[in-house]
Amino acid sequence: MNVFNTNISRLRLAGFLEGLSLIVLMGFAMPMKYIWGDPSFVRMIGSIHGALFVLFALQLFLTAEEKNWSYKDLPLKLMISCFIPFGTFYLDYKILKGMDEN
Questions:
Q1: Measured between alpha carbons, how far is 87 from 76 in angstroms, rounded to an integer?
Q2: Which of 36, 67, 82, 101 counts the highest number of beta carbons within 10 A?
Q3: Are 91 and 75 in contact (CB under 8 A)?
């Protein structure tokens, strides 16, 4: 499967990268800042995570437009999942994985 063939595939990739960056931010960079007093990782990883969040939101908008999704349902769930560690992975597995095959 070519990852860049469909908007769903690009959304799944963006969700994976955004979710991974959130886990690294919360699981590594935040403890480095608050336990060991080194905020440099939060600045670096936080910037990367922010860019990936914007990329995910943009791809979600493009996919929702293409698929004519109602913004009150699936796109809202996907945006909320960005704020929960492992949220994008869960919705990818439960919802988006099946859509990619169509």
A1: 13
A2: 82
A3: no
Full-prediction pTM beyond 0.85?
Answer: no
Q: Is residue 1 part of a domain?
A: no
Distance CA 82, CA 21 (A): 10
Instruction: With beta carbons less than 8 A apart as the criterion, state whether 63 and 11 touch.
Output: yes
CB atoms within 10 A of CB 23: 15
3 within a domain of the structure (yes/no): no
Q: Which residue has the tokens 């791809």?
A: 59
Mark residue 26 as left, alpha or beta (left: phi above 0; alpha: psi -120 to 50; beta: remaining).
alpha
Number of domains within the chain: 1
pLDDT in tens, the chain (102 residues): 566 788 888 888 888 999 999 999 999 999 999 999 999 999 999 999 999 999 988 998 898 888 888 777 777 778 788 788 888 888 878 777 767 654
CA–CA gap between residue 102 and residue 80 (Å, rounded): 25
